Amino acid sequence: MGVVNLRGVSGRFWSKVNRTPTCWIWTGALGGGGYGRVRQRRGPAVYAHRFSFELHNGAIPPGLLVLHRCDNPPCVRPEHLFLGTGRDNMRDMVGKGRNRQGRLLGAENPAAKLTERDVVVILGSPKSNVEVARLYGTTASLVGLIRSRRVWGHVKAPRAIWRDGRKGRRNADQGKAGREGGKA
Ligand SMILES: [Zn+2]
Fold this sequence. Notes:
Elements: H1 10-14, E1 17-19, E2 24-26, E3 37-38, E4 46-47, H2 48-57, E5 65-68, E6 81-84, H3 86-95, H4 116-124, H5 129-136, H6 140-147, H7 178-181
Antiparallel strand pairs: 1-2, 3-4, 5-6
The structure holds zinc ion.
C-alpha cells in the first residue's frame, strides 16, 4: 500500500517543485528534518520525497525508507531518491559524514548508481545476489529486492527469467521470484 493516490495529484504536486539544475526543491510545507510535506485531500500529510518516489516508481514496499543520495531533505527529484532500510540509512549517513550542504554524492553512494539498464542485466544475471552486488557496488539485500520485483518493478525482466509467463504482474509473485532470479 502506497502513500500516493495518483488520480489528479501529479500536476498539483509538480507545481510546488522548483527544479534547479541539480535538486528539485519542494516549495510547499516542510516538516520535521526539513522534509517536504504534502497535504492530501483525505488522510494524513505524507512526505514529499516519498510521494515523488511513488509517482515515479510505484508503491514503496512496506518497511522501506526513501533516502536521498543528495542528502538534501526537501529535494524530490526522482533520480536523487533510492530505497533502503533503516540500516542503509545509518550507513549512508555515516558514509556521508552527515553532510548537510546538499552536495551531490551520487558516485560515492552505492545504492544510487543503478540505472534501469543495470536492473535489466541484474534480473537476467545467473550470478548470486552477493556477486551482483559486488559488481555494481551495491548491497546484496537491494539486489534481492530487485530480483523479487519489490523495487524497480516498472523495469521489465528479460523474457528468459519469466518464461512461465507471469510477466506483467508487478508485485504479485514476489515470494516465488527468487527461485529463478538468484541463488542467495
Ligand atoms: Zn537532490
